[in-house]
Each structure stands twice: as structure tokens, then as C-alpha cells.
Write a structure and sequence with these properties.
two-stranded antiparallel sheet; alpha/beta; single chain; TIM Barrel; seven-stranded parallel β-sheet; 9 helices; binds zinc ion
Length: 269
């Protein structure tokens, strides 16, 4: 079952139109493709859909579902941020993510760029990136309650610019406690975690989210995973899926979840 459920298009910050993504998926021999446009959020981001975009997005994905029936299963999803206003459904599934933390009432982007991250940590966290990470994970722990999502997006996105612990120490007890605290809170809820290769295809990281020690912690808690590319272009639909599967196996996983017409189901890795 070849599937990707984390896909962005020109409706938000992706480069290609939905139909170009669909054609690429068919050419790759994929079984199914889920679209997960960025829901509008507060404050509005340049990378999200506007409220007016959402019905057009929905109509276009549903049109493609009809047009490609029998060739590719297409799912209509949405990526909600913890700060996204609720969106009228129905959706086949939603991804819930944290892309900003709030300090002094100011939204601070998590994944915009390294200079923005450093600047905001200096200005609002006294230069303490671990404090930024602690805020981030507190919000991650709240995502399913806030969004009702079935998939938890890029669990350790706060490490996007931190490969090799360049900016902060992810073995520091404060970081470990923050990340595992979020994980324990999420373990009580019914969510699927992503192995997400999006930062790899865009050149920020050489390994997927999450870090192996976190993936092992997920496996130890019996938490389900899926594999996604968080792709923003048609040519990265299945980017590094082989590496993601290897990572999953090396951390003890033997199953991943896929979405079917009857809901999420496990398949072997
Ligand atoms: Zn995201
Ligand atoms: Zn995304």
C-alpha cells in the first residue's frame, strides 16, 4: 500500500496544483494520496489557506476524487494548527500540528527560518532555546484536544534547524522531559504519529522527524505511526520513504497505519 497523507499544493504553500500531484502519484504507482492543505490560522499566515480558499480547495479535491476513481484513491484532509479556528467538515482525516508558540501574546514561528528562530529566542526567551522548546512541547501535548486530529504532525518540528544539536542539546534533561511529557500526554489520546520526511526533501535535515530515541519511546508506548513526505512539490511525493521504513523497523516497529475507506488500518513494514 503506497500512500502519502501529508501533501501541500498551490492552495497553501505548495508549488504544484492538486492535479499535478495526482498525476505524479499515478505515475509513481501509488495506491492513494491524501491532501492536507494548511487550514487558516490566527494570525493569518502567508503559508496557509484563507477562509475563502477552503471551499475551493474542498471542491477541487472532490472533483479529482471523481475524475481519477479507479486509478488512485484520493482523500480530503486538512492540516490544522493548534491555533487554527475550527473548520467545517466533513474531512476524511486531519493532521494536527504546532507551527508557532506564543510568548507575551506574540506568535513566534517554529519552522520559518533559523535566523527567525534565533532572533525570537533571544528576544522573548532570554536566548534560551530550551525554554522555546518547552513551550513548543506544551502546545504539542494539547493538539488533539484543540484540533480533533487523527494524525499528530512532525512531533519534533522544533528541531528543524537543529541537526547534530547545532543550536540546542536534545539530550539535556529539560528537553527530554518536555518531549516525553508531551508524548505521555498524547499517549492517552487516540492519535497516529508521523515519520515525516519533509525537512529532508527541502534540505534542512538528513533524517526524518522524529529523532530515533523519540520513535523508540513511541514504540515502547505502543503508539501507532504512519509515513508521510509533507511534500510541497509533485517530485517529492514519496521522498525517502525507504529510509523512513528502515528507521521505523530499527526502532522496533513492524506496522504502520494507512487510511482506507473503512478508516485507518495497520499494514506490515
Ligand atoms: Zn506542518
Ligand atoms: Zn505540512
Amino acid at each position: 500500500m503506497i500512500q502519502n497523507l501529508h501533501t501541500h499544493t498551490v492552495f497553501c504553500d505548495g508549488k504544484d496544483a492538486p492535479e499535478e500531484m495526482v498525476r505524479a502519484a499515478v505515475a509513481l504507482g501509488m495506491d492513494s494520496l491524501g491532501f492536507s492543505g494548511h487550514a487558516p490560522m490566527e494570525p493569518p499566515g502567508s503559508w496557509t489557506m484563507s477562509e475563502e480558499d477552503v471551499p475551493r480547495y474542498r471542491a477541487e479535491i472532490l472533483r479529482l476524487r471523481e475524475a481519477y476513481a479507479g486509478r488512485l484513491e484520493i482523500f480530503l484532509g486538512l492540516e490544522l494548527d493548534a491555533d487554527s479556528p475550527p473548520q467545517t467538515g466533513p474531512w476524511d482525516y486531519t493532521i494536527g500540528s504546532v507551527h508557532q508558540v506564543i510568548r507575551d501574546g506574540v506568535p513566534l514561528p517554529v519552522d520559518e527560518s533559523e535566523p527567525v528562530l534565533l532572533q525570537n529566542a533571544a528576544r522573548y526567551c532570554g536566548g534560551d532555546l530550551l525554554a522555546f522548546a518547552e513551550d513548543y512541547y506544551r502546545r504539542v501535548g494539547e493538539v488533539p484536544e484543540k484540533t480533533g486530529c487523527q494524525i499528530l504532525g512532525h512531533f519534533d518540528l522544533v528541531c528543524k534547524f537543529n541537526e547534530g544539536d547545532r543550536l540546542f542539546d536534545t539530550s539535556h534533561p529539560r528537553y527530554v522531559a518536555a518531549a516525553l511529557g508531551a508524548l505521555d500526554r498524547l499517549a492517552a489520546q487516540d492519535v497516529i504519529f508521523e515519520i515525516n520526511t519533509g525537512a529532508m526533501s527541502r534540505g534542512y535535515r538528513s533524517a526524518p522527524y522524529p529523532a530515533p530515541w523519540l520513535l523508540r519511546a513511541m514504540e515502547a508506548r505502543g503508539l501507532p505511526i504512519c509515513i508521510t513526505s509533507d511534500c510541497h512539490r509533485a517530485d517529492t511525493l514519496l521522498y525517502a520513504f525507504g529510509q523512513a521504513e528502515e528507521l521505523a523497523r530499527s526502532c522496533g516497529y513492524r506496522e504502520r497505519m494507512v487510511l482506507t475507506r473503512r478508516g485507518f488500518q495497520p499494514v506490515g513494514i
